[in-house]
Specification:
Pfam families: DEAD, Helicase_C, RecQ_Zn_bind. Keywords: ATP-binding, Helicase, Hydrolase, Nucleotide-binding, Nucleus. With 774 residues, the protein is of the alpha/beta class. It is 40% helix and 10% strand. Strands 4-1-3-5-6-2-7 form a seven-stranded mixed beta sheet. Strands 8-13-12-9-11-10 form a six-stranded parallel beta sheet, with helices on both faces. It starts with 7 loop residues before the first helix and ends with a helix. The radius of gyration is 31 Å and the shape is globular. Among the domains are: 38 residues; 194 residues, 3-Layer(aba) Sandwich (Rossmann fold), CATH 3.40.50; 191 residues, P-loop containing nucleotide triphosphate hydrolases (Rossmann fold); 106 residues. The structure holds adenosine-5'-triphosphate and magnesium ion (MG). The site of magnesium ion (MG) has 4 residues, from helix 9.
Length: 774
């Protein structure tokens, strides 16, 4: 097996990251040297004497003052986080052992087996439950249990008892029951349910019921930490297998085989109750967080069926779960995981009635004093009143409940600030720390020990704010989070996932999107194919439109995006529902002019009878002949008619989007743009111009249009620049603005040859000419 060029410490850290005990890791490295694969093999072969030693109790050292200061974890603390050794779960002996204290048996996996099946970088967390009250019938429990189910005995009651015992909840929810029923019937199952609805229990209960192992595939290390941490608190044994986030060949090699051969051994010896694929939208390239390795999980269906493994009576069921899958993504999941034709689809509403969605103009973070107050728990909307809402509430109990939520004060609780870049996690966390806020940064490039500690402190309510990238995005389950989103997310799926971290206790929580409304978002995932680029632009565009919307309930928009019919008229909580839409305006004149100018340029007859008004036609202009974009159309329009000068590019950009939304113009470029860029008229648009000349064109101004009209823009826009310098008042305003906004301009250094005039300046050239004349 190939060695690696890592230091001993790094190899030990990686082994610990995979879930091995510190002592085993140290011993293995001592024995085989800093060779990762050999060390894995050494431990798995059981050569290591004290593998799986119980972790001792020790507290973390904590420093809140500096988010990024060194956060060292004692190895004992690491052990505590890991809950139990991987070896506790990989018993490779013929006879299954089911004692509460897992004596670590020998494991015999050769290196060729380790490399036998390539699955790169997929992480699995393994949940195995000590049998608890079921331990008298451990071995055949699954069979007995299924017989009970077949004869109609009350498995649900058993599940409820276990739920009460381990988690303290009274009963399984109906969607959980459906998923469990599918599992009992050996069916594959796709569970689509809202964030925080309790999907994890669908795969945790099978482990509790059977005493067998449930293998959970998760896409994020943070999520695996989270699940293991929680399960250990409920007294349930769990551990994770994971490579570090930044890829390394060594880790991948180690991961490749671990998921197949040893698991088949595990299925034979201890029994595998279920394969759960959490956050399964990652399988789909149409999803927001596509992970190519997830696609290879189809090997589970191929390798763990009764045809291949004679000791199995039935195929081991697959359970795939997500809260954010559009219809296209769902189809892709079923196909790419090779799930059975009879797969049961369990679906609940994606609506989260206690989340209040808001979109606010982003502040320039570091220079804005309001940020501190907001991130420390003062809601920008805490003074909201109920004005006008009472009439809109219908008499149904759900609406009443939501109304009651609206009256609740926003409780104190930690905040997650999601930011688009790793750099921002650091700068914002530091900024908050400087204000005395207990904040920490979380992004995949930080050390694993730092990330683990942040996670732990977050769960222990020791941190007020975590500033994170998507690495902290999915699945994290903490009850009392209020959260904030800073900057445009890359998709509505990602946004809804991240929003889903908030209000998991069912109490009111705010999901505020601070967005720069005047800039079109452009941040895309770094690694992507051509197809994925198109898809990424499409998703960004949907997200941008969501932010610009001012008239439709935000929750409605979000759930409809996932293909659900929103069963309420509105959520009553979001900024649009509470503030109401802006005043509707008749923008017929503006819409007509813009469309006429577009139609004229493209030589499209504005009026189908050919009698179009060519006031704004300038199809001979060489500049416009090339590839006219919206900006050029607007500049032309504003040049030609003073009447529209007060509306700037930002405003027209918003109007163009509205007109596009009505289907009157369309993108004329092959590429997908976040905002319409090269507009062309559609047939519908031409008909509108021709037949609806006298019809009004009512529009709710969108966020950028409102922003444009509200901002002081007397001489601020680019298009105006260059006009009006002669006016002393205008000149004064511009200079003042430049002074406030910019660093003082550095004087340009001109090299001048001694004694000779510098001919690179006008003054110099004149002097040179004069001196020649002389
Ligand atoms: N039957 C139940 N009764 C009461 N609470 C429950 C029940 N099932 C789950 N919960 C609780 O709901 C919370 C959310 O559960 P979980 O983390 O499984 O959500 P999820 O659906 O996986 O969300 P996400 O999509 O964000 O990962 C947990 O704290 C869990 O304990
Ligand atoms: Mg989950």
């Amino acid at each position: 097996m190939a060695g690696s060029r890592l230091s001993s410490e790094e190899v030990i850290a990686k082994l610990i990251e995979m879930g091995f005990e510190n002592s085993s890791a140290v011993q293995a490295v001592k024995k085989v040297g800093p060779l990762f694969n050999d060390a894995v093999e050494y431990i798995l072969n059981g050569s290591c004497g004290d593998c799986g030693g119980a972790p001792s109790n020790s507290e973390y050292s904590t420093s809140n003052r500096k988010a990024l200061g060194k956060r060292t974890l004692s190895s004992a603390a690491l052990g505590q986080m890991r809950q139990s050794s991987i070896l506790n779960h990989f018993q490779y002996t013929g006879t299954p052992k089911r004692s509460r204290n897992n004596n670590v048996p020998d494991i015999s996996i050769s290196s060729s087996e380790i490399l036998a099946r390539p699955i790169d970088d997929v992480k699995a967390s393994i949940t195995r439950v000590d049998c608890g009250n079921l331990k008298t019938v451990p071995e055949d429990l699954q069979v007995c249990f299924r017989e009970e189910a077949d004869t109609g005995l009350d498995w649900e009651q058993r599940a409820n008892n276990l739920l009460q015992k381990h988690f303290g909840y009274s009963s399984v929810k109906s969607f959980q029951k459906e998923a469990l029923a599918a599992w009992l019937a050996h069916q594959d199952c796709l569970v689509l349910a809202a964030t925080g609805s309790g999907k994890s229990l669908c795969f945790q209960i099978p482990a509790l019921l059977t005493g067998k192992v449930v293998i959970v595939i998760s896409p994020l290390i943070s999520l695996m930490h989270d699940q293991c941490l929680k399960l250990s608190r409920y007294g349930i044994s769990a551990c994770f297998l994971g490579s570090g986030q930044p890829d390394s060949g060594v880790e991948q090699k180690a991961m490749r085989g671990i998921l197949i051969k040893p698991l088949q051994g595990l299925a034979e010896s201890r029994g595998i109750a279920l394969f759960a694929i959490d956050e399964v939208h990652c399988v789909s390239k149409w999803g927001h967080d596509f992970r190519p390795d997830y696609r290879r999980l189809s090997v589970l269906r191929e390798n763990f069926n009764a045809r291949n493994l004679q000791f199995l009576k039935f195929d081991i069921p697959l359970m795939a779960l997500t809260a954010t899958a559009t219809i296209q993504v769902r189809e892709d999941i079923l196909e790419s995981l090779n799930m059975s034709k009879e797969t049961k689809i369990v679906i609940t509403s994606f609506f989260r009635p206690n989340l209040r969605f808001l979109v606010t103009l982003s502040p320039a973070f570091h220079s804005c004093s309001f940020a501190y107050g907001e991130f420390c728990g003062e809601s920008p909307h805490k003074d909201w009143e109920m004005s006008g809402l009472a009439e809109t509430i219908d008499a149904s109990s759900t609406a009443e409940k939501r109304l009651a939520l609206l009256q609740e004060p926003l409780e104190e609780g930690p905040t997650i600030i999601y930011v688009p870049t790793r750099k921002e996690t650091l700068s914002i966390a530091n900024y908050l720390c400087d204000y005395g806020v207990k904040a920490a940064a979380y992004n995949a490039s930080l050390s694993k020990s730092h990330l683990r500690q942040v996670h732990k402190e977050f769960h222990d309510n020791m941190l007020e704010v975590v500033v994170a990238t998507v690495a902290f995005g999915m699945g994290i389950d903490k009850l009392n989070v209020r959260r904030i989103h800073y900057g445009w997310p890359q998709s509505l799926e990602a946004y809804y996932q991240e929003a889903g971290r908030a209000g998991r206790d069912g109490k009111l929580a705010e999901c505020i999107l601070y967005a720069n409304l005047s800039r079109i978002p452009s941040l895309l995932p770094s690694k992507r194919s051509e197809d994925q680029t198109k898809q990424a632009y499409k998703m960004l565009s949907d997200c941008f439109r969501y932010g610009m919307n001012t008239s439709c309930c935000r929750a409605k928009r979000l759930v409809e995006y996932f293909g659900e019919d929103f069963s309420y008229e509105k959520c009553l909580l979001c900024d649009v529902c509470v503030d109401g839409p802006p005043k509707v305006e008749n923008l017929k004149e503006e819409a007509d002019i813009l469309m006429q100018i577009i139609a004229a340029h493209h030589g499209q007859s504005c009026y189908l009878d050919g009698s179009y008004d060519d006031t704004y036609s300038d199809s001979k202009s060489p500049r416009l002949m090339q590839k006219p974009n919206l900006r050029m159309f607007v500049s032309k329009l504003r040049e030609q008619s003073q009447k529209f000068c007060e509306k700037d590019q930002l405003w027209w950009r918003g109007l163009a989007r509205v007109i596009e939304g009505k289907g009157y113009i369309r993108e004329g470029d092959d590429k997908i743009h976040v905002q319409i860029k090269f507009p062309q008229m559609t047939r519908l648009g031409l008909e509108f111009l021709e037949f609806e000349r006298d019809q009004p064109f009512y529009v709710y101004p969108e966020a950028d249009m409102i922003l444009s009209m509200n901002k002081c823009k007397s001489y601020s826009t680019f298009a105006d620049w260059g006009k009006g310098w002669a006016d002393p008042e205008i000149r004064h305003q511009r200079l003042e603005k430049r002074r406030l906004n910019r660093e003082p301009r550095k004087p340009r250094m001109r090299k001048s040859r001694k004694g000779k005039p510098d001919t690179r300046t006008a003054r110099g050239r004149i002097t040179a000419k004069l001196s020649k004349l002389k």
